[in-house]
TrEMBL record:
<keyword id="KW-0378">Hydrolase</keyword>
<dbReference type="InterPro" id="IPR000073">
    <property type="entry name" value="AB_hydrolase_1"/>
</dbReference>
<dbReference type="InterPro" id="IPR029058">
    <property type="entry name" value="AB_hydrolase_fold"/>
</dbReference>
<dbReference type="InterPro" id="IPR050266">
    <property type="entry name" value="AB_hydrolase_sf"/>
</dbReference>
<dbReference type="GO" id="GO:0047372">
    <property type="term" value="F:monoacylglycerol lipase activity"/>
</dbReference>
<dbReference type="GO" id="GO:0046464">
    <property type="term" value="P:acylglycerol catabolic process"/>
</dbReference>
<feature type="domain" description="AB hydrolase-1">
    <location>
        <begin position="35"/>
        <end position="268"/>
    </location>
</feature>
<protein>
    <submittedName>
        <fullName>Alpha/beta fold hydrolase</fullName>
    </submittedName>
</protein>
<dbReference type="Pfam" id="PF00561">
    <property type="entry name" value="Abhydrolase_1"/>
</dbReference>
<dbReference type="GO" id="GO:0016020">
    <property type="term" value="C:membrane"/>
</dbReference>
Amino acid sequence: MTIWNELAGVDFALKTVDAAGIPTRALQAGSGAEAVIFLHGTSGHLEAFARNIVPHAARYECHAIDMLGHGYTGKPDYPYEIPRYVRHLLDYLDAVGLEKAHLVGESLGGWVAAYLASDHPERVLSLQLLAAGGTVANPEIMERIRMSTTKAVQSDDIELTRARLRLLMHDAADATEELVQVRHRIYHEPDFVANIGNLLSLQNMEIRRRNLLRPDRLARITAPTLVVWGHENPFGDVPEAEKLAADIPGARLQLYPACGHWPQHEHAEEYNPLSLEFLAEAAERAKSAV
């Protein structure tokens, strides 16, 4: 199954959107009264959601973007701390004319989405946190992310890219050869190589600590929230997910067995209907609150 096949049956466009001066690659598909924004993880790219676009685009206006400094989006020369990501996401929403959106964030994307939801509740219809980062600062995991990514970027050996992608998955088969090729190409774009230090700045302990999603921030989130986690997540155990959900008022937790760090990809057949049900419930809750 290729990315092209995953997207079969839906009209979509790959665009470069000017988000306050930062060219931002976006896959846009579907239509509807509400929009869903998909946000990937550290050193990732919009293809992380290839298995999710078609079912969501049947009901919603979908945007999967390469976040600040990632993929084929612009790479300004400064450390990418969470408020920078939030500003870029807000600028993207403004550029495409969206006052509000449902946010679906995986790993780093969840960190950014939760931070935005805590500061700008008026922009968020609902929140999905998929193996979200940002609640802890574990030096062993931070070093694993930093070293595995740096080695893959600094070497032409595609096996290092393959190993970096497989690190995310419980089943290595989910790190498809096509995804490996896409990521290897991105990792070796000259601007990506030159900017890898900025992209990995959150793996620095001092920087990470001042960007963490602390309980008082999570308690400010008012959007309906779904936390999705894998039992074999290599970057965070289940108690981390349970605490994340407990710290957000009214949040719901969904755990998947035999699942690593990409639940939306590894368990797409279960995740997609769960997400659509959650989005519909959020819409009904919003109507009843009016």
